[in-house]
Amino acid sequence: MSEIVLSLKGLTRSYAVGGGKSLEVLKGVDLDLRAGEVVGLIGPSGSGKSSLLHCVGLLEASEEAALTIDGEDFKNASEAARTRARLHKIGFVYQFHHLLPEFTALGNVALPQRVLKRPLKEAEAKAKALLEQLGLGERLDHQPAQLSGGEQQRVAIARALVNAPRLLLADEPTGNLDPQTSQQVFEALRDIVKSQGVAALIATHNLELASHMDRVVSLKDGKLVELSKADA
Fold first, then answer.
1. Which of 46, 2, 100 is closest to 222 using CA atoms?
2. Where are the beta strands (DSSP E) in 19-109?
3. pLDDT, tens only, 99-125
4. CA 119 to CA 197: how far, in whole Å?
5. What CA–CA distance (Å, rounded) separates 56 from 74?
6. Of 91, 81, 64, whose CA–CA distance to 5 is shortest?
7. Collapsing DSSP states into helix, strand and coil, what is residue 26?
8. Distance (Å, whole) CA 3 – CA 117
9. Quick one: what percent of the chain has pLDDT higher than 70?
């Protein structure tokens, strides 16, 4: 059985809503993700999917939760340790691609490598290999405005994976795409995640896509429940 990349135990999250009151969104969430596993995260709007992704991605802190990523303990971790993990261990893909408009596809994907002080030639070679793997070998020199929506999202996926993270977090990565393009982008994401042995957690409202993932978990009333494929 493949190794556990993410181990989360007892995640709670509350938000102040005024008048001295708070709203408890997550009520003791447990989740394990294994290398090469693609897990769908579903639930109604406002159920806490984004909050869960932010906590797992070390963008928000939860002092109560036990959280390890790639064997490293992040409970009460310093901001420096969290920042380092986001650079080396975690990749993010969002509903909107957030590509830099003045950079080419190659430049956008090479950028995270440059942040890690990799030489330009090495960074571009790695970016080129990933883009080719995602079917964009002919689009390396195109800026985001010259790419279709599906191509933009595949560039965003390549950028998220270029630093070889162990964990990929995606929040509605196909939410802005038509059904056919959505399926194509998801298949590209799934194939490259599995080829690299990355653990992926993908929040989506698209139940058809969720049914093609290895597992599906649902957030309801602050709790995480694993569903059968039939239930999803």
1. 46
2. 21-34, 38-42, 66-69, 72-73, 90-93
3. 999 999 999 999 999 999 999 999 999
4. 25
5. 10
6. 91
7. strand
8. 29
9. 97
**Per the structure block, which two tokens stand in for 72?**
């490293």
Q: How far apart are CA 67 and CA 83, in angstroms?
A: 15
- Supply 221's token pair: 């009333």
Distance (Å, whole) CA 226 – CA 214: 11
| Closest to 68 in 3D by CA, of 31, 113, 39, 25 | 31
Query: Under a CB-based contact definition with an 8 Å cutoff, are residues 49 and 169 in contact?
Result: no
Q: Summarize pLDDT for 31-74 with one digit per residue, the tens.
A: 999 999 999 999 888 888 988 999 999 998 776 789 999 999 99
How many angstroms separate the CA atoms of 140 and 108, rounded? 10
Residue 79's Cβ-count burial label (10 Å; 0-12, 13-18, 19+) is exposed
Residue 73 CA to residue 89 CA, distance in Å, equals 12
**Token representation of residue 7:** 């181990």
User: Within the chain, what is the greatest distance between any pair of CA atoms?
Assistant: 56
What domains can be seen in the chain, in order of their start residue? Answer: 4-227 (3.40.50.300)
**Coil, strand, or helix at residue 23?**
strand
Do residues 210 and 204 lie in contact, with contact meaning Cβ atoms separated by under 8 Å? yes
Cα distance between residue 104 and residue 110, in whole Å: 10
Note every long-range contact of 22-29, with CB atoms under 8 Å and residues 24 or more positions apart, other chains counting: 24/222, 25/51, 25/222, 26/51, 26/52, 26/55, 26/219, 26/222, 27/221, 27/222, 27/223, 28/222, 28/223, 29/65, 29/219, 29/222, 29/223, 29/224
